[in-house]
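Morning run. Coffee first, then this:
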Amino acid sequence: MNKHLVGLKQMAAGKIPNAPVGQLLGFKVAEAEEGRVVIELATSERHYNPMGTLHGGILGDIADAAMGYAFASTLADDELFTTVEIKLNFLKPIWQAKLRAVGQLIKKGNTTGLLECHIYDEKESLVAHSTSTCLIIKGSEDGKRERLA
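And here it is:
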């Protein structure tokens, strides 16, 4: 099991805190396994746009986190990644809801990965669908990206 997956499992178990963006927005890792991560978020008025519904960027954040974490769970200890493309389809408006973003690896190559995310509300109704392409970055021994010039 790579160090990324170990950390995700610890987050899901509440042994270590979620990433700063998760703490800011209020989402958490609920499940983690190789190639699949579930993020949960209970929405509230603090997540609303001026129209009084959930801001689309919040859906983008939890989809990006679920897919990014799912990809990280498949990487070697000396690898990092960056998202190079993300697409998100909004399927219905959301107000207050408990959302589950299920990020899953579709295909991983030597340098890139393709992922998808389904976001459901508490009634298991599909709220949004997202896809993402991620680029693998080789790191140094300490796990940090090597500086490019």
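Residues 64 and 82 are 11 Å apart (CA to CA). Good start to the day.
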